[in-house]
Amino acid sequence: MFLKKLAPATVVLVGSLGLGACATKGFVRDEIAVVSQRIDALEQRVAAGDTASRQALAEAQAATGQIQGNSQRLEQLNARVDQIEQRMREAPRRRPRN
After folding, report:
1. Per-domain residue ranges for the chain?
2. Which of 38, 49, 68, 80 is at 20 to 30 A from 94, Cα to Cα?
3. Residue 25: other Cβ atoms inside 10 A
4. Would you give per-residue pLDDT tens digits along the chain (98 residues)?
5. Nearest 5 degrees, angle CA 16-CA 34-CA 21?
6. CA distances for 10 relative to 1, 7, 18, angstroms
7. How far is CA 37 from CA 33, 40, 44, 45, 46, in A?
8. Per residue in 64-78, is it b (16+ CB within 10 Å) or e — as a string?
9. For the whole model, what pTM was predicted?
């Protein structure tokens, strides 16, 4: 008989404990707001990193263009030096006058 009276109280007690674990809408909103703020901060950092990497890429591409131009100029100068050296080898040697 005692167990029959205790059974409904046990059901009510277990049910209330189970329902007490459910989050309220306000709690969920507060937790989502915190997470959203962290996500927003991370998105800003990613955007800043993306901007910096694009700028670095543009500068690297510009430097590559300059290097290619300098390399071509150096090749032209080497060819001219080679021509001058060839002329000097082929030219008769002059003796100084006494």
Report:
1. 23-88
2. 80
3. 7
4. 555 666 666 666 666 655 556 778 999 999 999 999 999 999 999 999 999 999 999 999 999 999 999 999 999 999 999 999 999 888 777 666 76
5. 10
6. 15, 5, 12
7. 6, 5, 11, 12, 14
8. eeeeeeeeeeeeeee
9. 0.51
